[in-house]
Write a structure and sequence with these properties.
The chain is of the alpha+beta class. The protein has one domain: GTP cyclohydrolase I, C-terminal domain/NADPH-dependent 7-cyano-7-deazaguanine reductase, N-terminal domain (GTP Cyclohydrolase I, domain 2). 34% of the residues lie in helices and 32% in strands. The protein is built from 4 helices and 4 strands. Strands 1-2-3-4 form a 4-stranded antiparallel beta sheet. Helix 3 packs across helix 4.
């Protein structure tokens, strides 16, 4: 299966369990791997035969910045579900949410979750 990849789309949002995270906000990075057949788009050189990575990125950005989630798992799940609903050509999607500023009392570069969802039926 072919893939459209979006690497580390930066968003500033207010997700988290702690009150400070919801008040101050922080940076998150969204990465997506959309799986679909790109053969027709490649042969015809026609955007109508694919999923626009700009549209996929815009959908993800809107979800991350216009809604609030306590868990980055919920953010990833919502992006995956809404992408599959919005783009019928997608067979599957993997969404990774990186949270570099996670409030953990340890030295680390960040935390991340990754979910993969496939179209049913």
């Amino acid at each position: 299966m072919d893939r459209i990849l979006i690497h580390r789309l930066a968003v500033f949002a207010h997700h988290g369990v702690l009150p400070e995270e919801n008040t101050l906000g922080q940076r998150f990075y969204l990465s997506l791997e959309a799986r679909l057949d790109l053969g027709e788009a490649g042969r015809r050189d026609d955007i109508a035969a694919t999923v626009s990575y700009a549209d996929l990125a815009a959908l993800s950005h809107a979800i991350a910045t216009q809604r609030r989630f306590r868990l980055i798992e919920a953010l990833a799940e919502t992006i995956a579900a809404e992408a599959l609903a919005a783009f019928p050509a997608l067979a599957a999607i993997t969404v990774r949410v990186d949270k570099p500023g996670a409030p953990v009392p340890l030295v680390l570069d960040g935390v991340a979750v990754e979910v993969t969802r496939t179209r049913r039926g």
